Fold this sequence. Notes:
- With 336 residues, the protein is mainly α.
- The protein folds into two domains: 2-204, Rhopdopsin 7-helix transmembrane proteins, CATH 1.20.1070; 210-335, Orthogonal Bundle (Arc Repressor Mutant, subunit A).
- It contains 19 helices and no strands.
- The chain has helices at residues 2-25, 33-58, 67-74, 76-88, 96-101, 107-110, 117-140, 145-169, 175-195, 197-200, 204-207, 211-231, 241-247, 252-263, 267-285, 290-296, 302-313, 317-322, 325-335.
- Helix 1 (2-25) packs antiparallel against helix 2 (33-58).
- It is elongated, with a radius of gyration of 25 Å.
Amino acid sequence: MTSAIMVLLGGYGILQSLFLSIYVLTSQLRKVTANLILVALNLFLIFFLADSLYLFLADGNSLHFNSISLTSLALIGPLTFFYSRAFLNSDFKAGFTELIQLIPPFLPLVYRMNVCRLHLLAIAGYIVLYIVASSILVYHAESPSRKKIWLYALLGSMGTVVLLLTFFSMNFLCIIGISIGFSIMVYLISYLSIRFYKELFEPIAKKNNQPKAIVQTRALFEQLSEEILSKKLFKDPELTLPKLATLTNMHTHKLSHIINQETGTGFPEYINSLRLEEAKRILRETDMKVAAVAFECGFNSLSSFYTYFKKKDRMTPSEFRSLPEVDLETSVNQSE
């Protein structure tokens, strides 16, 4: 009975992941670096689960993995980090630094390590380091919210793998638990893949084959920007995407798509950029206190104003105000 459940759960998860990998590799999607890294990550996960199933079915009392499985498992860490970088930056290219990071995962294979509690915990910790690094990268990235949702879901799935490994190594979980966790993880990733397909996998070149749609989107964005600026809608600290959609008589999903398409960022980043430009104008033309400027422009706190200002211009509002006129122009040009 246990074997049948193992084959059903694990096999279905393997087939679903394998289908996604084959689809990407046999379509135009393979031209995108991030997609190829994702396929590699997916294949190593498949191998890990398939080998686990094989060992379990070959010997019902044996729950240990071989050195190849350990290597496949360890590769999840750096590949997850590389995928996050490539997904957020289309110009990402693997170099010497990336190759160096791929050496440690092959140590179990080179030294033919047997699996024990220490090895599993070491690999789990190794993966966690890359998940944390990837999370920090995603948090600081200026990217549309949907892309961040996808990456956080992927990192959460990898974190689930770590938890399963940890519980298994401490004898709190059997191999069937790993199969169930893996299947749930695959379902989540597949759902998000289907829901956000175009934004996650579609090559840029394919989008450029729709000039009419692009022109229409650009025209709508210019109209939207003009309305926001003329009515100073960004000054509302409680402004949200649904609220702006109501004020501009536009569907929320369409509004989000237009902003993401034309600015390359999400709604919060777009609105904050407008607030920042207004703040700079006030700082240059008036003697209004910095705190008053922050709230006048729509920032809901002085700390968030300082943080965003320094992030964009690498100086505080007070330092910006004290710059000579020539340096002010240089600063504005650099921020643009």
